[in-house]
Design the sequence.
């Protein structure tokens, strides 16, 4: 699974937070609001489209091509994406047990309870 750059992550955060698909201009406006730079300038829409194209190639977003302007939506949820990253990281470990033990040893008590509950289900 591909890693995300800062702008890619910011755009994915916006898409994950919304249940609706968004146009490049809508995403550009939301990013500008978050930055709150005060200078009235944000990213060029071409920059946003380039980032969306990269995210589409990484199979993280889907473009709705039937209407103009195209609308984009996340292919998976944030939780699914994060779980896939965790699974991928675990898959690269030579000693999976040691990695899992280290991870489990670093979780909070409430997270440990949650893990027990999930494993028992």
Sequence:
């Amino acid at each position: 699974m591909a890693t995300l750059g800062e702008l890619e992550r910011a755009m994915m955060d916006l898409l994950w937070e919304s249940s609706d698909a968004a146009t490049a201009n809508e995403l550009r406006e939301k990013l500008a609001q978050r930055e709150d730079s005060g200078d009235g300038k944000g990213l060029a829409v071409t920059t946003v489209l380039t980032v969306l194209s990269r995210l589409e190639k990484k199979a993280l977003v889907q473009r709705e091509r039937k209407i103009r302007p195209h609308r984009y939506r996340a292919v998976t949820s944030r939780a699914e994406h994060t779980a896939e990253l965790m699974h991928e990281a675990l898959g690269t470990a030579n000693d999976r047990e040691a990695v899992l033990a280290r991870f489990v040893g670093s979780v909070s008590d409430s997270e440990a309870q949650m893990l027990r509950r999930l494993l028992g289900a």
About this structure: The chain has a mean pLDDT of 90. The chain has six helices and two strands.
